[in-house]
Specification:
By secondary structure, this protein is of the alpha+beta class. The chain starts with 8 loop residues before the first strand and ends in a 14-residue tail after the last strand. The protein has one domain. Strands 2, 3, 5, 10, 11, 13, 15 and 18 form an eight-stranded mixed beta sheet that branches. Helix 2 packs across helix 3 and helix 5 crosses helix 7. Strand 2 and strand 3 form a beta hairpin.
Length: about 425
């Protein structure tokens, strides 16, 4: 089963510039640009209740004094504030462990609300909810016509740089739009006066039936490419479909890790060797297709773009959580130090983070759940890869489900 994940669209608000013309990007004032070079998302999917909870934190850069975000969702969401450093804590918790024996590799000011829409002005626009989450003002909007939504955004000082077709893409799917204001007075300003920072994470919870990443709306605020880092928590390991799969880098990395220069190790940590055995008949075709796409795996290096500028997806951490993980989050068990492995491979693994950072892991308690799989993967999307929305699917190759884990540095792991 799959759920839907909406993607953020950056917005520039013209609260202080009535009548200004739109420039480039999602929503932008004249001579004021906002770009979205990267973003992070943490998603939890409950296939039984068909409820998704996701937390998003986009990175932005630009020179607009007031701007915000538009988040399309398939149903009306419930919003709540998340810890500012939530993704920092996630990054610390998903640090790959290093094997010691045998040794692997190398050691707010508010700008003022626009006037509310008067009844009858735009009959196909309905404001379902108005509120504040953390320091962000938001409105949840329902629209049945793209041209009316386009006009509403303009009338309310959201100068939209895209076309009505992009809005209509989501209206036809009967998605809703959450519009959020960003207070740049609280953001870091560069020497040239532009802003460069990350928005405080906000959690959305809503009913849905499958997981989809709405790339189409993000395409508007991307010059050439955008980098997305996903943490997906579900009953199963997940992947991207078709030619976006991380198997083009995951399988070669496992193969290269089986035969390091100095020694041969079996089995691989996290049942990687079992995954290779299960898909052995399919590996030649997979690698052949990777070659046709220009995806070249190099041991210990991050993948490079092909001739079309496209970079394969990479997996960065994957494991089914246990009660022991929750104990670490709650401070009942140590994060730092060595652990003896019990996967059939002799040795110990270790990871380390400053104690102050480890204490912050308590903010993950209640969000990470024992018995669920967390898959962390990264994809750099070019504009040409963002013409449609993106499904996130169960990890598999052919008719084989991929339940292999990745929490330890392998001989062929990139830096």
């Amino acid at each position: 089963m799959r759920s839907r994940l909406p993607l953020l669209a950056a917005v520039a608000l013209l609260a202080h510039a009535p009548g200004a013309d739109a420039a480039c990007c999602y929503f932008s004032a004249k001579n004021a640009d906002i770009l979205q070079p990267a973003q992070k998302a943490f998603i939890t999917w409950d296939p039984d209740e068909k409820i998704e909870t996701f937390t998003v934190q986009p990175k932005f850069e630009g020179n607009a004094l007031d701007f915000g975000m538009v988040i399309p969702t398939p149903s009306q969401p419930k919003l709540s504030e998340m810890p500012r450093d939530f993704f920092k804590h996630l990054a610390i918790y998903t640090v790959l462990k290093k094997r010691l024996v045998p040794r692997f590799g190398k050691d707010s000011k508010k700008s003022g609300d626009p006037d509310e829409l008067k009844p009858g002005d735009l009959p196909t626009i309905k404001i379902l909810e108005v509120g504040v989450v953390g320091s962000l003002d938001y409105k949840i909007i329902e629209a049945t016509r793209a041209d009316d939504l386009f006009k509403w955004l303009k009338d309310n000082k959201y100068q939209y740089a895209g076309d009505e077709a992009t809005l209509n893409h989501y209206i036809q799917k009967k998605w809703l739009f959450t519009v959020m204001k960003i207070d740049t007075m609280q953001m870091k300003r560069n020497k040239d006066g532009t802003f460069d920072g990350e928005v405080t994470p906000t959690r959305f919870r809503f009913a849905t039936d499958k997981l989809i990443y709405p790339l189409k709306i993000t395409q508007i605020s991307v010059r050439e490419k955008t980098e997305a880092l996903f943490y997906v928590q579900a009953p199963f390991k997940v992947d991207l479909p078709g030619e976006l799969t991380y198997q083009y880098t995951w399988v070669p990395m496992l193969q290269a890790s089986l035969k390091p220069k100095s020694l041969k190790i079996r089995p691989l940590p996290g049942r990687g060797d079992k995954w290779l055995t299960a898909i052995e008949p399919q590996i030649p075709k997979l690698l052949e297709r990777a070659g046709e796409l220009g995806f070249v795996f190099e041991r210990g290096k991050r993948p490079q773009p092909n001739t079309k500028g496209r970079t394969p997806t990479t997996i960065e951490w994957a494991r089914k959580l246990t009660a022991a993980d929750i104990d670490i989050l709650q401070g009942k068990a140590p994060y730092n130090g060595m652990q003896k492995v019990a996967d059939g491979v002799p040795g110990w693994v270790q990871r380390h983070a400053p104690e102050e950072e480890v204490k912050g892991l308590q903010h993950l308690a209640g969000h990470l759940q024992a018995g669920l799989f967390i898959t962390k993967f990264r994809k750099i999307f070019t504009r040409s890869e963002m013409n449609d929305d993106l499904l996130i699917v169960p990890a598999r190759l052919g008719d084989m489900d991929d339940a292999s884990e990745y929490e330890e540095i392998l001989p062929a792991s990139p830096p």
